[in-house]
Design the sequence.
């Protein structure tokens, strides 16, 4: 009888918990309301991701206000990240800059809030260790296979990125190699263009990633070719991504990989 009583009480508590959980609002914060931040916000608005409220912040307040007015979902514009944290979102997405990551990553993760980082270049020289920090695959894929091979040992890791000169802020009339060297330096020279290099550099560690950036007026897409030689074979990947119509420096896939990661995180929450 006693055992049956405790069993029934446990079942009642679980049902009450489920009811309460259904009434908890899923709040998502977005830092940076540019091209990528807008794509993510629109996905939330269109219910591609299950979300009840969006909190927006941009250093340019007009950007956040403009984006907020375009959404039908409940939206709050804040004047700073501290105010965003105070609203206790389930996940915050950084879509602003490497400096934003450096300024806020530790502060957000210390509050036990999941943080999705798009400006991955900041992590190459930032000491942040938290299971609350997540990196989307961005404009490439195959990272699980590459990081697995890295455990066994890599002999070579090469990323060749080919972009239209306009995406690189250049006006080259002919194909030209504009950078060749380590990933750490590439993300400093091209902080808005080459987050792919940072993501891949983290995946191949402890090996070093060599990066080659090509300015090519013949291409209209962002092309990323990855060559990996490891202990038991070779890997070749090629990604040809359409640029974002409002920001040719980035691929549309970068935003959608973050949306997919967000969707999976909310399922686990």
Sequence:
């Amino acid at each position: 009888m006693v055992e049956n009583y405790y069993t029934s009480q446990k079942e009642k508590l679980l049902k009450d918990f489920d009811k309460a959980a259904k009434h908890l609002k899923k709040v998502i914060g977005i830092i940076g309301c540019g091209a990528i931040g807008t794509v993510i916000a629109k996905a939330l608005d269109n219910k591609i991701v299950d979300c009840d409220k969006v909190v927006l912040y941009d250093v340019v307040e007009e950007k956040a206000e403009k984006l907020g007015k375009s959404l039908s979902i409940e939206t709050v514009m804040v004047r700073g990240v501290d105010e965003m944290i105070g609203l206790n979102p389930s996940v915050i997405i950084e879509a602003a800059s490497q400096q934003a990551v450096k300024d806020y990553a530790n502060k957000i993760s210390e509050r036990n809030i999941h943080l999705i980082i798009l400006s991955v270049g900041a992590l190459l020289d930032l000491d942040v260790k938290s299971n609350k920090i997540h990196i989307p695959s961005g404009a490439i894929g195959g990272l699980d296979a590459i990081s697995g091979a890295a455990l066994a040992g890599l002999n070579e890791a090469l990323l060749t990125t080919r972009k239209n000169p306009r995406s690189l802020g250049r006006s080259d009339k002919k194909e030209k190699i504009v950078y060749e060297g380590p990933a750490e330096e590439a993300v400093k020279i091209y902080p808005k263009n080459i987050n792919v290099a940072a993501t891949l550099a983290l995946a191949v560690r402890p090996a070093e990633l060599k990066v080659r950036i090509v300015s090519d007026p013949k291409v209209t897409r962002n092309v990323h070719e990855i060559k990996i030689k490891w202990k038991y074979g070779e890997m070749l990947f090629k990604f040809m991504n359409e640029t974002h119509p409002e920001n040719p420096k980035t691929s549309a896939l970068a935003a959608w990989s973050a949306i997919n990661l967000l969707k999976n995180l909310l399922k686990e929450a």
Summary: Residues 33 and 62 are 9 Å apart (CA to CA). The longest helix spans residues 2-23. Residues 16-23 have pLDDT under 50 and may be disordered. The domain at 2-135 is CATH 3.40.50.720 (Rossmann fold).
